[in-house]
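Students often ask what a 'structure token' actually looks like in practice. Rather than answer in the abstract, let us consider Accessory Sec system protein Asp3, a protein of 272 residues. Its sequence is given first.
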Amino acid sequence: MNSSYVVMWPMATNGTYNYGSTISYEKGLVNFSNSQMSPGEAISSWKSKQDFDSNNAQFNQLPLLKEGEQYHIVVNAEVIPSDSVQVQINFLDTLGETIDGITTLSLDDYFEVPLGTQAYDLNLINLNNQGLTFKNIVITPRDTKFEIETFSSCTFRMVSIWDKEEDFFEEVPVYIRNRTLNTGSYIGQNQALRLYIEFDSRSLLTETELQSELQLAIHDLKDMVEERNLAFDAFAPDPVSLAKNDEKVMLVEKTASIELAKILHYYRGQSF
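Now compare that with the structural description of the same chain:
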């Protein structure tokens, strides 16, 4: 089954245009501005292959995509002025040479991976941009039937994925990771609303703060469920821990089970 991918702001400092830039982080968003930056420069960059020759090496930050396949890319960002940022993808062969020139895309567009692609780079290009508020990039197979939504802060993320052709779900599996992924892979499931909860166990987030952030994310999920008229057959979620159980993991599992059960009971079998 094909995966959907969520890509966050570059981890490495050489992945962002820093000279003269003002960059701030707030509630899972990255605010970027640089009025002196020349048009055509890359605001931020990601690589699918690590650069071992660099003193500040990039980690693999892009998912592996299939040759010859078509994908949908959505850059979830607010841009001032509109159309002042574009996407450029550079597909590379085994020699590191560009295949068929650079692909230029809008922030919501489709592309095909050329045959012979061994790696690729993705850049957000400045077109006289005055301000960018970045959430994430979502890459999905063009023909996917699954929809994906994210709720995140600096150290916490919840990803929901479901069949967009369905509005009634028999299961709500919840996968818990004690680390946030800079590039996460998420797989949908038929007749299920899948949730992935990720948090950085190394952060200074207290258990109370973690619980509060999770409750806020689930409140946003409730709004999404209501907006899309979703309904459920499950009485309770089915949590699955992808990490060694510790106090924070158990807290997330308990809080998620309680808060999600409220939603499932309220929207159980309802039609709007």
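One point worth highlighting: The chain has a mean pLDDT of 90. Ask yourself how you might have guessed this from the sequence alone, and why that guess would often be unreliable.
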